[in-house]
Amino acid sequence: LNATLRIRRSPLAARHVALGARWESEVSHWPLAYASPDQEAAALRKGAGLNDWGPVDKYLVKGPAAAESAAAVAPGLASGRIASTDAGGQAVILLRLAQDESLFVLPFGGPAGLPEFLGAARPRMVDLSSGLSSFRLAGPNARRILEELCPVDLADAVVPNLSVLQAPLANIHSILARIDHAGVPVFALFVPRDLAEYTWDALLASGKAHGLVPVGGRALDSLR
Amino acid sequence: MLRVRPGRVIVATGAAERPSLFEGNDLPGVMLGRGALRLARLYGVRPGLRAVVYTDDDRGWRTAAELVAAGVHVAAVVDQRPAPNPDAGDRVASAGVEVLLGARVLKAQGSGALAGVTIETPDEPRTISCDLLVVANRLEPVLSLLAQNGLRPAYDTGLGEFVPGDSVPGVGVAGDVRGPAAADLVLEDGSLAGLEAAQALGFAGDAPAPDRAAWEARRVAFLAARPTVDPTRSPTSGKQFVCVCEDVTTKDIKHAIAEGFDSLETLKRYTTVTMGPCQGKMCHGLAARLHASLTGQTPADTGLTTSRPPYQPVQLGILAGPHLSPVRRTAMHSRHAALNPTWMDMGEWKRPLVYTSIEAETRAVHEAVGLIDVSTLGKLDVRGVDAGDFLDWLHPNRFSDLRVGRVRYRVMLDDAGIILDDGTVARLSDDRFLLTTTTGNIEAIDQWLKWWLAGTDRDVQVTNVTSELAALNLAGPRARDLLAKLTELDVSKETVPYLAAIEGTVAGVPAIVLRIGFVGELGFEMHFPADYGDFLWDAIMEAGKEFEVQPFGVEAQRVLRLEKQHAIVGQDTDALSQPYEAGMAWLVKAEKPDFIGRDALAAFVQEGEQQALVGFETDGRIVPHEGEAITRHGEPVGRVTSAKWSPYLSKTIGMGWVPVEDAKEGATITIRHVGEPLPATVRLKAFYDPEGLRLRS
């Protein structure tokens, strides 16, 4: 058997197929774009876009190792804050969920997975790359859409750029991370994989009135 | 859940406190009697330093005495009655409390908090400084549930209260809900109501007929000695709250009536009095009486507003918000959907119940190989230096001595020794364990572990990896051949015996493979990153063609496990099941130093077993319903917890709880099936492969 042929699929693969998605690659079934990346980007800038952000690797660290590993990537990062950095030649987004809980997001994965420099914390890292599905909700109406499904105040003053919180979203537990792209508000949402279709459907249904459309990774990249 | 269909119901909803009307009655420091005493008795908090008790009943005097006992200085008891019962004041008087009779509180004074009260007395007005004003009036019957059941409240003029009116067939009342009475009268009322119910249903035997008339006479005598006070009398015009939930004052009510809302029902809708979160618990009676007095009527004329469900408040979002019921789908959902199975909901999960037929699916597992998606199992990653010891503490058996590469069955008990959950623990390295839980229990067990971890310095981290790891169980005599085709791991019986745990790749996908068998055949349970769910399913189905692999659903799994008498926690056990009676005595390592539930288990051993969970089979194809009674001489002595027709064994099999003396191989028991007796035979060993040779093959 050829291991390189193994196919990693988004939990939303069936939804994307129905929307006519083009995949990132043969072995990675996440949407690069649907019909037209330009139209998607335009819709996103005007209202909002919902993107299935993957395959993104995620590692959770708890306990004392959470602080040690966070210090290795972004010294002094406070709880509830996000650091987006380049460490050991690899893009790393660190979500400091709590004093003793850090989530490392590696947007482009990597052949070796987790960077070596995390050192002693490595054995304590739990791979949640599949377990946490990640969406990006981007655009000027992103906050209004989220607020219909989330009881937490998401105003700029409360949840500024590069902050993270855990909150109910459509009656399920979620991690909400604000990571704006070039001044456009972007909320990265992390939900349990088996609830991905449910969350995707709930967001699209409630976002319809605010011009929300599904967008591929290309549309998001065009913001940079 | 128990569903009871009684022939008769006795409602004893009791009575609730009634606030008083006076200026400033919403100031912090003004409290009801039960609230103040709850602070003192339940929480050990002194509700205030210097108190005045305001009352229209002997309750106030008792409340004052209890406050004194709780260390509160009670400055005065203000009783609206000109002459209370002579014996009411003994304890209060001896505590040096001033008593003002025929007096009324006019105003609670203070800015932001209570500083004192102004009192009207028969002589001259008084002001007493205090930081606590306890309002302890006569209690008011709680009629809402009765009213919702069709019973109309009636106003008893002599009593000065709304009480249960005309009766509703099959519903009796007892206790304070009838109106105030002395404790001995209330107790007797309960006995009488019970007897009346028993008689109405023909259960009273030769007990003497209840003498309700004599009781009524004593009650009338009791009430005659207790004149009532109109709770709506209020001589001042300041702000007095009738309904604190909705901020409705006496002035609002007066204005509304002046504007023409002079019927009680329209008054309620206009002012929203009684419509707040407490559903009128505080203001229902008060508002009705106030309305009557302001419109020159009696409460008997106006009645009460209609009581409507819910009696307890419910968030509007639950009733009218968007329909957001989470749905969980496994990583292989689209593959199941393509096979068009019968689906079932298991909590939030969607699971295939049957793909083709139970017969074909169970046959495939027994004779070839079956594949089932078990991703819904709860999974916890438990790691850290102290992880083994921590698991020892949480379970009646041991895990610290489990070797790396081995799996062990786990049953978790609560403090009372009751079975909470079961599953397996696999040791993947010295300080890393994979723990599985039953499908519905994962959140509770995750919290349970974190609860026992909180505040300790144990080096243990617990992470819920239920969504991260998809899981497939490959079961049947050809399971090994199929797996061997997909992996470079050595999966021979010698290298991977029963209860082994190995890590490697299957079809290129990193996987943890556990050799366990819930369904009683040679089995491999694979846990792997869920993003590869579809891929691995496809790979197994493709490679398995030559072995006649067949997917099987939850229903086939339930039949197969029943053939082995493998209990399902939560189905075959309930909130009273302990491991000895459930046939899990072998699991308990009582010699362990300590673990949760240990003391309770010791008590169970002393008490001895009363009942036992056993297997049974019946002749013929009648399948008893789960939950049906097992009877002896027509009386229920146990119950059926599981029963299925096994097409492979060609008989009806089941499990159930029986008295311990019936837990003998071959004993005959009787099941009451749809009202008719159905004989069954107790079987203590698995119906299929009782020696477990196939499981271990």
Fold and architecture overview:
The complex is a heterodimer of chains A (224) and B (697). With 224 residues, chain A is α+β, with helices and mostly antiparallel strands. In chain A, β6 and β7 form a beta hairpin. In chain A, the strands form three sheets. A six-stranded mixed beta sheet of chain A has the order 11-12-13-10-4-14, with helices on both faces. A five-stranded antiparallel beta sheet of chain A has the order 6-7-8-5-9, covered by helices on one side. The relative contact order of chain A is 0.21. In chain A, α4 packs across α5. Chain A starts with 7 loop residues before the first strand and ends with a helix. The mean pLDDT of chain A is 90. Chain B is α+β, with helices and mostly antiparallel strands and 697 residues long. Chain B is built from 19 helices and 35 strands. In chain B, α5 runs antiparallel to α6. The longest helix of chain B is centred in the first third of the chain and has 18 residues. The mean pLDDT of chain B is 92. The interface between A and B is large, with 40 and 40 residues.
Kindly summarize this structure in a few lines.
The complex is a heterodimer of chains A (224) and B (697). Chain A has 224 residues and is α+β, with helices and mostly antiparallel strands. Chain A contains six helices and 14 strands.
